[in-house]
């Protein structure tokens, strides 16, 4: 069959107790996977080497993926820098939700700044040219900021929930000081979860392909344990909290409409923006995390290796990165308050 040419080049383990050193596109939870296959892929660009599916030198991944990553990087840097400038210039008037969104923009910016290294890595057919320090740092930064992004959305969901469902108590809870403390806690938590990636990322020479790969050097049982923990804390728990808050927010808005009550216009505008950002995040990231769960099941022997999983996971990874570009666009389209501040800043710049 004709398979789409998107996969990873892995270092095959020497034996069942060997170190587990998968290569990837960018980071451990974003893209780390062991794709040891029990079958070849006839009629495709996949080869079978010691029972491991690898991509051959003619794969379109080396042609199509690097430009895509670079476009995402350039747009993400421009858009998120613009968003941060607008928020910073009006930081005294920032709401609690905007404090969370500005930190989300910072996380997106840090993530896309690291992607060009992985574009070059892919272009060089997974031969890492930047040394072990950048291998560790860029992997950890991407992982940390991907982790922080979802928890900033958790904070933003809780903020909207409290503001709309428990409005009488929100004045006491929803203060900028507490919002900044929450953001600081999220950054610290992201740093803790990124430490194993920084520690165990190493340059590993693959003698079969003659390539030096930026890989996570862990025993397989530790790798799987870490994968399960990160799936629970970076996907399952946040998605439950976000879903519950979003459902309650929608119920509250619907009840107010039926009872003929009007919410404050500022609250309605902020809620519209937050719901748009949450929806974009779910669309971009849920497919990736679902394929990660399937990959863990495959590594535990519950599921068999299939080339379709490799293809879908790779597509979901690069689709997830697009979320870092999409968020600033949503701020402009759905955020009326953000548009007003941008207009004021542009107008004052022209007059000066």
From TrEMBL:
Membrane topology: Multi-pass membrane protein
PROSITE patterns: G_PROTEIN_RECEP_F1_1, G_PROTEIN_RECEP_F1_2
Pfam families from the UniProt entry: 7tm_1 (PF00001)
GO biological process, one term: positive regulation of cytosolic calcium ion concentration
GO CC, any one term: external side of plasma membrane
Domain G-protein coupled receptors family 1 profile, residue spans: 79-331
GO molecular function: bradykinin receptor activity; C-C chemokine binding; C-C chemokine receptor activity
Protein name: Bradykinin receptor B2
Species annotation: Neolamprologus brichardi (Fairy cichlid)
């Amino acid at each position: 069959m004709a398979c789409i040419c998107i996969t990873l080049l892995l270092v095959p383990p020497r034996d069942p107790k060997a170190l587990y050193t998968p290569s990837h596109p960018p980071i451990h939870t974003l893209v780390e996977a062991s794709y040891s296959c029990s079958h070849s892929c006839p009629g495709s660009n996949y080869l079978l080497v010691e029972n491991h599916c690898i991509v051959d030198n003619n794969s379109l991944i080396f042609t199509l993926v690097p430009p895509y990553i670079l476009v995402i990087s350039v747009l993400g840097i421009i858009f998120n820098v613009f968003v941060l400038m607008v928020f910073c210039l009006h930081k005294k008037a920032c709401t609690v939700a905007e404090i969370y969104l500005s930190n989300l923009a910072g996380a997106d910016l840090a993530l896309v700044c690291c992607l060009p290294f992985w574009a070059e890595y892919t272009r060089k057919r997974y031969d890492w040219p930047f040394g072990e320090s950048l291998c560790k740092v860029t992997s950890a930064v991407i992982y940390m900021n991907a982790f922080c992004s979802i928890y900033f959305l958790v904070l933003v969901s809780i903020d909207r929930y409290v503001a709309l469902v428990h409005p009488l108590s929100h004045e006491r809870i929803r203060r900028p000081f507490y919002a900044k403390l929450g953001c600081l806690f999220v950054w610290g938590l992201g740093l803790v979860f990124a430490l194993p990636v920084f520690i165990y990322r190493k340059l590993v020479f693959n003698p079969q392909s003659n390539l030096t790969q930026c890989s996570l050097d862990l025993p397989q049982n530790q790798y799987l344990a870490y994968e399960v923990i990160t799936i629970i804390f970076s996907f399952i728990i946040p998605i439950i909290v976000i879903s519950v808050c979003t459902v309650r927010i929608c119920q509250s808005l619907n009840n107010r409409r039926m009872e003929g009550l009007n919410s404050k216009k500022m609250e309605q505008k902020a809620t519209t923006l937050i719901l748009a950002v949450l929806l974009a995040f779910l669309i971009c990231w849920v497919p990736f995390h679902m394929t990660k769960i399937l990959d863990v099941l495959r590594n535990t022997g519950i599921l068999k290796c299939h080339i379709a999983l490799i293809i879908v996971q790779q597509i979901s990874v690069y689709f997830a990165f697009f979320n870092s570009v999409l968020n600033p666009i949503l701020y402009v389209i759905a955020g009326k308050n953000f548009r007003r501040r941008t207009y004021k800043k542009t107008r004052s710049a022209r007059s000066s």
